[in-house]
Amino acid sequence: MPEPKSTARDGDDVHPPDADARTAPSSDSGRPLDVGAVRALTHPLRLRLLDLLRFEGPSTATLLAGRVGESSGSTSYHLRQLARHGFIEEAARPGGRERWWRYQERRDAVAEEDIGGGIVRTLLGELLSREAYALDGYLAADARDPAWDRAAFFQTRALRLTVEELQELQDVMGATLARFRAADRDVAPPEAVPVRVLAFAFPQAIEQP
Asked: How large is the C-alpha radius of gyration of the chain?
């Protein structure tokens, strides 16, 4: 499954860091997702950059350029766009001049009546495409640890819920996930590896006979 790429360009971005910042990402959950923020994510390269920052921790435009096969000018431009809308933030490091970036958690719901259903569908399509790409890579691996295979899971359930019960399910799942460390944390057991978790629940469309 090929991964889409971008060719946007801009100048390199440098900044003199002043402190070590490999800490837990902060939260920008109080900032609502507007049209610009949603559109900023409907770009395959930006989603890939977010993935790298989420799962591998802080990085620079130059280092990320080497990972995604783009120029540092291109990655610098897209990183600044992500920062503009609160999806990443600066992670200052001692020494050197290049700017470091880290992932910033956002938990806002996207309201279609405020943003537009077409943009939301485009965003969800891009997000699901990235998850499918990652899952395909996992399943296609030549050698996988049987212990991890036994622990990994894929579940689907058919439920009949009220709006309040669906909200409760969302809250319970959020609270459960919050108990576990983020993928970009330094403090973790040596055997720990990044793990992707994807969950969504929505009313099933009723087909008319």
From this structure: 19
What's the chain's length in residues? 209
User: Quick one: pLDDT band at residue 95, thresholds 50, 70, 90?
Assistant: low
Half-sphere exposure for 10 (CA within 13 Å, toward CB): 13
Helix (H) or strand (E) holding 90: strand 88-90
CA distance 67 to 47: 13
Lowest mean pLDDT among 16-20, 133-137, 184-188: 16-20
Q: Distance (Å, rounded) from C-alpha 144 to C-alpha 141?
A: 7
One-letter amino acid of 154 = F
Rounded to 10 degrees, what is the CA torsion of 181, 184, 188, 193?
Answer: 100
Report long-range pairs for 156-160 (Cβ below 8 Å, ≥24 apart).
Answer: 158/204, 159/201
pLDDT at 42: 80
User: Ranked by mean pLDDT, which of 13-22, 30-39, 65-74, 179-188 comes out on top?
Assistant: 65-74
Location of structure tokens 């057991």: 189
The token pair that represents 113 in the structure block: 């009546």
Which residue has tokens 């309201």? 111
Report residue 143 as tokens.
């050698």
Reference 60, options 102, 8, 24, 120; nearest CA is 102
Q: Encode pLDDT of 33-64 as tens digits.
A: 667 777 888 888 999 999 999 998 899 999 99
